Every structure is written in C-alpha cells, then in structure tokens.
Amino acid sequence: MELTPMIDKSSFEPIYLQIYNYIQEEIIAGRIEADSKLPSIRRLAQYLNISRTPVALAYDQLLAEGYIKSKPRSGYFAENVESIARSNYNLKQNKVSPTGNYSPIHHFYHSYQNDAIKYDFGYGTIDLHHFPLAKWRKFMNRSLLPENSFHLLYGDIQGEIGLRKEIASYLHQNRGVRCSPDQIVIGAGTFHSLDLLFQLIQNRTTSIAVESSVHVGVKALLNKFPFQVEPLDLELDGINLNKLKKKEVQAIYLTPSYQFPYGMTLSINKRIKLLKYATENQFYIIENDYDGEFRYNNRPIPSLQSLDNNGRVIYLGTFSKSLTPSFRISYLVLPTDLLCLFHLGKHSYDQHASPIFQKTLQWFMESGDFERHMRKMRTLYQKKHAIITSRFSDIFEDKIEIVGAGAGLHIVIKVKNDMDELKLIDTAKQFGVNVYPTSIYKIENHQEQDNILLLGFGGLSETAIEEGLRLLKIAWFPNNP
C-alpha cells in the first residue's frame, strides 16, 4: 500500500499531524480497510521525501488511539474502526483534537504521569521538590484577600507595573539588561510574547534570519507570518556571521546564551560583530535569553541587550525554568520604536498572564525569596549537571560524545553505534527511559536524521540520573555491558 497525504510544509499545522489526520480519516471512512498493512515508517518517509520523525510521531499517535496496531516483525496494520468509539472522533476538515491523554507535542518536553516510563530525561522538567511552595502560597493567599480583589479583574495589558519594576531590577543585576519598567511587556509564555513581537515587526520585516535549528513552537509561529525565513548554519561559537551578511534580512532570531537545542554559546567577539552589523544595516536582533540564568563552567556572558547602545536588540525571557512553566509568565523588553507601536495598538494582543500570579511573583521577588530560590537552584542544577556529564564519561567511555553542555537544564549527546535517532529513542523507551530528538527542530525538514539526542536532567534526582544512564548503556550497547 502507498499513502499520499498532502504535505504542506508552509502550514501552521505540524507535518506529523497532517499525516495523522490523513490516515485517521482514511481508516474511518473505510478507504483503508481493517487489517490492511501500512507502509513502514522508512518507506513512507522516503516516498514523501521527509524525515522519518514526523511519520513515526503520526504512527505513535494512531497506535495510542487505537486506529492502527503493531505486529512484531510484521509492521503496522489498520484496526477495525467498529471497535473504536466513533463518539470520540472529532474530525473537522483537516484539523483534529486528539482524544485521551496522549499528545506527541508534549512528548517533545517530557513524558506524562501515566506513561510507562521510569526515567524521563525530558528538557521541560524542573526540580519540583525544591520549589518554595509554602512561601509562594503565602503571597498567593495575600493576593486573594478582600482588599486585593481587584486582582480578579483583567489587569494591565502591559502587565502589572510592580512586577515590571522587579523584572527590570532583576535583569539588570543578573543579565546586565538596561531597561526601564515601561519597556517591559508581560506575556503568558515565550510563544505568546513572540506572537506579539512578530505582529509589531511584520509590516517592516519581509525576511528574518534564524538559527538552523529552533524550537518547534518558534517554527510554527514563523509560519503564521509572511516572513521569508533564512536559516543560518551553526558553528561551535554560534551562528555563521558570514552567511548572515549574504542575506538581506530585517530581523534575526537567536538563542545566544545557550543555543536550543545544541547548546553552543555565541562568543563575545561574534556578539560585538553582530551588534555592529545590525546597527549598520538597521535590523532587529531578537534575543531569546534561553537558560541564560544557568551557567556552570564559565563566567556568565553578558546578554546581547546589555551591549546594545542603538536600540537594535529585543530581549525575551521567561520564568519557566527559574520557577515553573505552569505560571505562564514571560516578558519582552522592547526598544522605544516598537514600544510606541505597542501603545498605538498595532497588534491584536491581550494580556493572558494571570494578574494574581503576576502580583504573587512581584511580592515573591520583593521579599528576596526569588533571589534566594535562584541561588539554591543554580547550586542544585550545577551539581546535577556535573553528575550527568561525569557519569556519561564513566559509563559510556568513548561510545558517546557530549556535544552540548555547560549551561541550562539539558545536554546534547552523539551516540556512536549503528542506530539512528528514531531507533535510539524507541530502544531506550523499551527499557523505560525517555530521551528526545533534535531533528524535529531543524528549519529544513528534509534534512536527514542523525544520532544526536537531547537529554534533560532538571527534574531527575541524582540517583535517577545514574540509574537512567545505566539502562541506556544496556539498551544501546547490549554487547558491551
């Protein structure tokens, strides 16, 4: 059997979901009959001229929801749709809302509680055991007192002024960012803030340069806007500036403190050259200071914004790793011209960050508890980083190369065996360990997979890190115990 779904690489909808929607509809409509054998992941990927990762994710989703079944050493087969509750099926045109608790998108971050996974190296996890719940609850309760009931309303569209003052002070002390509270716009997460920013610059930006690998959420947002996306090759010290100079762009998006996902840091020499080039050519630098607050082996490198004297840098940050992602609080630091556009209403933005959480965070920062928490977490994560990097060397010796480390809450490894990315992930999962791909972050989807994986360590205990690595050794190198 051959399958011919319509793949639109410019669509906001991820490729794996386009494949999933197509096969699901064909099975339910009876055009793929029960017990029909589907093409293998490799064969379908080759036929569609795409990488195997989106095909594998589509099959995983169909398998989890019961539309297909897997037979060992035989392949994938269509299930009898009569055994599927049609009432749970909610297909609308070419959109789908997956039923149940399984969603491959979240599997790019971490596993679910009901997954049969013992050790999850998800990069979206943090150490919840050390979160100061009692102190946070105290300030949360304060925000719910009758005299503070106005926090139950919508709040300031730019964000609560008290929190903006605290953020401005924190950024100056810890990242060297120079800004006033009036330049800060609070958002409900990185992608909410980026969406606002892209709205503000879209009328003056036709082409935007980005690192050759970026977060899938960033890729999806870029596809929403009429930007010509120009990928930039990555080197050991960040983006290839020579390639940038050959492109006519009005903006560049990058993660200079700890490139996501590969982990390199933009060198100070390149930072200075980039700022000079941006000033000369009058384009914006969008600095996502991803994991900039967690560096372990070297002195902190100043943020790009702290070196900017000409209003070319737009600074973006979040509290997802320093506190918890569930609070959904991010922030933009806008140059004066873009701040004017914001106040003129050149956007469809609304404030989605809870005023209650904003006020609670303000008091948490004013009390000094936030800074104490950050010092504690830096020490804790530094210890975990040292453990995972040293144990990799001890357990795997020269069979695995660490290609990205030194900051943040994840590392990147290159596995030296005959397995590709997909096989490495599937084999690890059979032993109860979740590891994560890097190929899904490539701007150019047709690029081949490799054997480079992403492993987060923030949410694992020291013991779990070591036990998880030992299981990976058994899974990936069964003949070398």
Automatic annotation (TrEMBL):
Protein family per UniProt: In the C-terminal section; belongs to the class-I pyridoxal-phosphate-dependent aminotransferase family.
Species name: Metabacillus niabensis
Residue span(s) of domain HTH gntR-type: 13-81
Superkingdom classification of source: Bacteria
Protein name: GntR family transcriptional regulator/MocR family aminotransferase
One matching Pfam family: Aminotran_1_2
SUPFAM superfamilies cross-referenced by the UniProt entry: PLP-dependent transferases (SSF53383), Winged helix' DNA-binding domain (SSF46785)
Swiss-Prot/TrEMBL cofactor(s): pyridoxal 5'-phosphate
Transmembrane feature ranges: none
InterPro entries in the record: Aminotransferase_I/II_large (IPR004839), HTH_trans_reg/aminotransferase (IPR051446), PyrdxlP-dep_Trfase (IPR015424), PyrdxlP-dep_Trfase_major (IPR015421), Tscrpt_reg_HTH_GntR (IPR000524), WH-like_DNA-bd_sf (IPR036388), WH_DNA-bd_sf (IPR036390)
Keywords attached to this entry: Aminotransferase, DNA-binding, Pyridoxal phosphate, Transcription, Transcription regulation, Transferase
Gene Ontology terms for molecular function: transaminase activity
